[in-house]
Amino acid sequence: MEINKQKITDLIEEFKQKRDSVTIKPENLTKFETVALGPEFLSYMNGKGGYYAKFLNFLIARLRPATIVELGNREAVSTVSIFDAIQSYQAEFYTIDIEQDQRFCPEHMYTDPKVHFLFGDVASYEIVKQLPRKIDLLFSDTIHYNFQIQDEFEIYQHLLADKALVAIDDIHLNDKGVFFDAIKFDKWDLTELCHMSGWGLFLFERKQPIDVATQEQNLTRSIMKVWEKKYGKVYAELSKPTFSQKLKESIKKIGFIYKAKLAVGKILKK
Ligand SMILES: C[S@@+](CC[C@H](N)C(=O)[O-])C[C@H]1O[C@@H](n2cnc3c(N)ncnc32)[C@H](O)[C@@H]1O
User: Which DSSP category does 108 fall into?
Assistant: First the structure.
């Protein structure tokens, strides 16, 4: 994918002018008419609260990234808008979630060979091993905490093409801004345009080209690092003494002090 800072900036400006003319094809919106909460979610698709769905559609239609990965897709507003954009060219689209609730995806999405639905934790090896190794566009919209986006980038940096776009939803929710603020690549805070709770885009560029074997090694190391950290926290929690253990310890101490006092008393009496 041919991209640079100026091209992205120009596309953002162009989208600002054209956003209301960006539309999703009616055949891809059929589920919004029949499934519960359809009208509400269609309004998000059409720009209520921000234009992120239309922006993703526009960006993809214009840049034509060959490989797209989406992290978190329930109920699939963004997923449908990405799908709509890739219908006009050859692309591979992987979309991942723990939950099987892609209620707004039209039936023909499930049989389209360009689309790959994966179910599981985005940070798990089972998911990562099924993904392509040169992602051109990564869109992250899972849980909105700094630790989650940190973990995702720790792993997915090794899956990105040498130049890739990374879009992140809700960058101003909770402590997620910590991640976006620290990014050293060219970046755009598109909150006002795309989503009132925050929406960011950055242009990842690998400084040194890396061979496939080293990249796989780094990937494995990063997955281990993320899971060691996750389990380390759980283990530390589990290793903390429980209330009843603390109580027993205190009773033992009190008993010891009482016995010691008696012993000292006896010695002093003598
Ligand atoms: C905000 S929703 C996604 C919305 C969707 N992108 C859209 O615009 O319609 C977040 C989703 O991320 C999923 N999720 C959270 N943590 C995840 C993880 N570690 N792995 C996979 N999916 C995850 C949740 O199950 C939830 O469905």
Answer: G
Q: Given this model, what pLDDT does residue 250 score? A: 85
The 8-class DSSP code of residue 241 comes to P
Residue 97 beta carbon below 6 angstroms from any ligand 1 atom: yes
Distances in whole angstroms, Cα of residue 38 to Cα of each of 113, 165, 209: 26, 30, 45
CA 187 to centroid of ligand 1, rounded, Å: 23
Same domain, residue pair 124 and 245: no
Two tokens, residue 32:
């919004």
The CB of 128 under 6 Å from ligand 1? The reply is no
pTM for the whole structure: 0.88
**What is d(CA 192, CA 107) in angstroms, rounded to the nearest whole number?**
33
| 60 Cβ below 6 A of ligand 1 | no
CA nearest neighbour of 104 among 72, 144, 73: 73
Q: Which ligand 1 atom is the nearest neighbour of the CA of 99?
A: 25
How many domains does the structure of the chain reveal? 2
pLDDT in tens, 30-75: 999 999 899 999 999 999 999 999 999 999 999 999 999 999 999 9
Q: What is the CATH number of the domain that holds 181?
A: 3.40.50.150
Alpha-carbon radius of gyration of the chain? 26
> How far does residue 173's CA lie from ligand 1's centre (Å)?
15
Across the range 205-234, mean pLDDT stands at: 93
Atom of ligand 1 nearest to the CA of 101: 27
Among protein residues, the one with the nearest Cα to ligand 1's atom 10 is 142
